[in-house]
Specification:
Oligomer: single chain
Structural class: alpha/beta
Order of helices and strands: EHEEHHEHEHEHEHEEHHH
Shape: elongated
Number of strands: 9
Length: 281
């Protein structure tokens, strides 16, 4: 059997841009290819059996059970490849409170093993008081053989710890700009170009998304033309970058670029080589 490293993916995008639909496509491939189960903490009750698009099987989970080991029994019993979920309701069919959702999520990350977990809308049940402690809990899942996916509706919701540890960012259309969070990321240029691509493609395809491979500094799921357009937008939004390019001097003391277009073309060529994988998917 080929060994593989578990992954940590964060998906961002406001409601309605396709985060759930995209995850379901990913999960189908995951179950069929890797023969592992997937557990979703379905806080928005979107992955239900009645939804013909998804149909995740709800497990018997009682968030009000005080005995933690007994409460986690059905979570620990998930072994068969398939798509499972925990619904955001108690046994009396009343919605879970934020505190109960946190108990459910904590039980998942403590006892679930051998598959993938999706945690949706963490901010729905983690206040600032609990967030750091809980983030520390789920960040350790990869070291226990669990693939982790976390969905957020905004960039603001991603904590600095999550920014530093995630491997992939699945980027759908957001309402915020990445520059507001430049202190949290390692390459503002990379993320700004990716953001420009998402914003541009959204105009004609509201379901468009891409991945940023944070460890490799690559943009996945795009073409060379997408990178070119992202670079053009980036330079138009950051004129200081273009001025800096135009001021470059070669070893003979002459201007490196004969014209502004030469500078733009060289920037696009360099960034395409830097950020586009050799064999883009």
């Amino acid at each position: 059997m080929e060994l593989r490293e578990p992954t940590f993916e964060v998906a961002i995008g406001f409601k309605g841009v396709g985060k759930t639909y995209t995850f379901d496509q990913i999960s189908d491939d995951y179950v069929k290819t890797l023969r592992r189960p997937i557990l979703v903490f379905d806080v928005n009750n979107e992955f239900n059996e009645g939804n013909r698009l998804y149909g995740y099987k709800a497990i018997d989970f009682d968030v009000t059970e005080e005995n933690e080991f007994k409460r986690s029994e059905q979570i620990r019993n998930i072994k068969v490849p398939g798509k499972y979920r925990i619904v955001p309701f108690k046994k009396n069919r009343q919605p879970m409170t934020a505190r109960e959702m946190l108990i459910a999520a904590s039980t998942i990350v403590t006892y679930y093993r051998g598959g993938m977990v999706l945690l949706e809308d963490l901010n729905k049940y983690t206040s600032s008081h609990f967030k750091q402690e809980f983030v520390g809990m789920f960040m350790g899942l990869r070291h226990l053989g669990v693939d982790l996916v976390v969905h957020f509706q905004s960039l603001r919701a991603i904590t600095p710890k999550v920014w530093s540890d995630m491997q992939y960012l699945r980027w759908h259309k957001c309402s915020e700009k990445i520059i507001k969070y430049k202190q949290r990321i390692t390459s503002l240029e990379l993320f700004s170009i990716a953001e420009a691509i998402v914003d541009h493609k959204y105009r004609t395809n509201p379901r468009f998304f891409l991945w940023v491979d944070v460890l490799s500094n690559k943009i996945l799921g795009v073409t060379a033309e997408d990178i070119r357009e992202g670079c053009r937008i980036y330079l138009s939004q950051n004129p200081g970058e273009l001025r800096q390019l135009l001021s470059h001097i070669d070893l003979d003391g002459k201007k490196k670029y004969g014209s502004q277009q030469d500078a733009v073309n060289d920037f696009i060529k360099t960034k395409t080589e830097d950020y586009l994988p050799v064999n883009p998917s």
